[in-house]
Design goal:
The protein is an alpha/beta fold. Helices cover 24% and strands 26% of the residues. It is built from 11 helices and 17 strands. Strands 3, 4, 5, 8, 9, 16 and 17 form a 7-stranded mixed β-sheet that branches. A 6-stranded parallel β-sheet has the order 12-11-10-13-14-15, with helices on one face.
Length: 347
């Protein structure tokens, strides 16, 4: 039997989100029913609700930073029991058979992973996200939230945490490495915390020095304003890795100039506009310009365990569901430190 739950949805592109009801599917053999306690607001929620990344599915219930408690399990579930603290991130299924899925990189599923919202599942039904009271998810795409993490600060880890953890681990952030983080927002503040915990020397590159004190408290060793041209001269050739977390186009030539020979600039922010690049910026120093998208299920669990071990949670501003539309505008104005999280009890 399906379950009717309250949710906040965008009825059409660019329309304000409003309270509504949706149907959650009947619990399947390997499904868990989760009472959602908290849901983070990601900038990508806004991109999709406003069709900034292309045509979308409406009505849309955004939210892929979900933390809650298991309230019911299907008869074949072995990983979870009622009462377990769990999370759901950016995907809720994949083909599970392709080379990437078998390698634990379900996010790069050849057939295409099934997004937590704004997607169509293999059952032909649209998916609805975490701005709601409950969600039904296959246990294979459900994460265990360690006891050391409060659910509210853990919710953003399901996107912002894994989105930054994955490239930092892949490109070897650690002792002896100099890492720069471009932007100190929802993604950037997590990148700083995680890179610091991994043992790297961390520099924040932000448009201004407005958040400098915050950046240093979060774990950055240095903080520079990119609006100052002297920054690019002073720091030239200094970094092993740069992680760009911003959703605006960059002057890639300038940022690639900050890398050591063989260094990498990895993008996790996704601007809506195309970008241009003079390839000599790469060729001249054997440099890499790369992208990274969240992480697989196993790596996401690894990230959650790492964050619990190191006492890392997101810096959040807890809001009521009625404040979602205002929060969207504040995100666009960079007026949040550093992640809005919805108390879903208010839906």
């Amino acid at each position: 039997m399906t379950t009717t739950v309250a949710a906040y949805a965008a009825p059409s592109a660019k329309a304000p989100l409003e309270r509504t009801t949706i149907e959650r599917r009947t619990l399947g053999e390997h499904d868990v029913l989760i009472d959602i306690k908290f849901a983070g607001i990601c900038h990508s929620d806004i991109h999709q609700a406003r069709e900034g990344w292309g045509e979308a599915i409406f009505p849309m219930v955004p939210g892929h930073e979900i933390a809650g408690v298991v309230s019911e399990v299907g008869p074949g579930v072995t990983k979870f029991k009622v009462g377990d603290r769990v999370g759901v991130g950016c995907m809720v299924d994949s083909c599970r058979e392709c080379e990437n899925c078998e390698a634990g990189q379900e996010q790069y599923c050849v057939r295409g992973n099934i997004g937590t919202y704004n997607a169509v599942g293999y059952d032909g039904e649209p998916t609805y996200g975490g701005y709601s009271e409950k969600v039904v998810v296959d246990e294979a795409f459900t994460l265990r939230i360690p006891d050391g993490l409060s659910l509210d600060v853990a919710a953003p880890l399901l996107c912002a945490g894994i989105t930054t953890y994955s490239p930092l681990k892949r490109w070897g952030a650690g002792p002896g490495k100099k890492v720069a983080v471009v932007g100190l927002g929802g993604l950037g503040h997590m990148a700083v915390k995680i890179a610091h915990a991994l043992g790297a020397e961390v520099t924040v590159l932000s448009q201004s020095l407005r958040k400098k004190d915050d950046g240093l408290k979060l774990g950055a060793d240095h903080y520079y304003a990119t609006s100052d041209e002297a920054t690019f001269t002073e720091l030239a050739g200094g970094f092993d890795l740069i992680v760009s977390t911003v959703s605006a186009p960059l002057d890639f030539g300038a940022y690639l100039g900050l890398l050591k020979t063989g260094g990498a600039l990895v993008n996790v922010g996704a601007p809506e506009e195309p970008v241009s690049l003079n390839l000599f910026s790469l060729i001249g120093g054997g440099k890499t310009l790369a992208g990274s998208m969240i992480g697989g299920i196993a790596e996401t669990q690894e990230m959650l365990d790492f964050c619990a071990e190191h006492g890392i949670g997101a810096e959040i501003e807890l809001i009521a569901a009625a404040e979602i539309n205002e929060a969207y505008e504040r995100v666009l104005n960079s007026d949040v430190r550093y992640r809005f999280v919805i108390d879903t009890a208010t839906i």
